Every structure is written in C-alpha cells, then in structure tokens.
Amino acid sequence: MKAQIRLLGVDDSPFMFSEKYAMVVGVVMRGGGYLECVLRSQVSVDGDDATFVCKKMIEDTRHRKQLKALLLDGVALGGFNVVDIEEVYSSTGLPVITVTRDKPDFVKIKNALKKNFSDWKNRLNIMKKGRLYKVETRYNPIYVKCAGLEVEEAKGIIKLSTIRGVIPEPIRVAHLIASGITRGESYGKA
Predict the structure, then answer these.
(1) Which domain holds residue 157?
(2) How many domains, the chain?
C-alpha cells in the first residue's frame, strides 16, 4: 500500500441536543501526514441525513477520484444520526472504515434509542450491520467496522494513517478543526 494514499476523515463538531444542526468536518489527507483539503457540511442533530451527507461530501470533493477510503469517528454523527456505511460504499464505491475507542454497548444504545426515537429499530439495525472487529494497537485496542474492503486492508490503512495514539490522523484532524471552529479552541479526543 502506498504511503501517500488519500483518505477522507470525517467527524462532527461538539453540539447541544437543543441545537437543530451539528457541523461536520471532513479532511482529505495523504496518509497521515499531509493535509490537502478541508470540507464542511452539517447534519441534523439526531436526524436521519448523515448517510446522505457523507455521500455528498465524497461526491462533491474535487479529490474524489484519488480517495481510497472514508474514515469515520464511529457510526453516527450529530448524536444518533446513524451512517449506513454499506449504503455509502455501494453508492459511491469508496470503502468506509469506522473507528471507535470503546466497544459499543448495544444494550445501552438500544435503551437510549427506544426512549427517544420511533424508528429506533431501524437505527439500531444500521448500527449493528456488519462485523465489529477488535484491533490491537501499541496502546489500547480500537473497534472497527468496514464496508468495501477486508479488515486486514482496513488495519493497514489505520496503521499507515495513525501518527500517535490509536486514532487515524484524518479523523483526529477533522475533530480538532470541528471543535476549534465550534468552541473557539479545539479540545478533547477524537
């Protein structure tokens, strides 16, 4: 795998549940070392447009033809606005990798969804789609789902694009930009 593959990392901004929208930032990076482009969009907080927004970001960037994968911080943006990674892949042809630090607790997620959403079953089914892989790192394990590529290739992309810690640089940079714009200064871990 080339060290300079172009990756699109996406994360949402900090938000309050009383807000209608959350900002979404995408960054196009070569591997984990060179930032080429910053993209901005928005999703409805707890809405159902995150899949569409991810597809639109991919389709509209001038870097589309060079992208090798979309990296997402988890499977949802703007609260429980769930991204259907299989649909993003099938619609765009771009492989998708989700990365989380913590193993999802589907019992807690199901309870929260049931309490707050009439379409909770659909959201939960999208979140549970695909296999969740535990990936060991030099530090702590991360949890990964992928669409459009095998887990070994996803591991290679994650390793290639991670400079420090466990989170790939495209996701980390998207997080820093989104939180910096929203709060005035970036903070927290992606």
Answers:
(1) 6-103+131-183
(2) 1
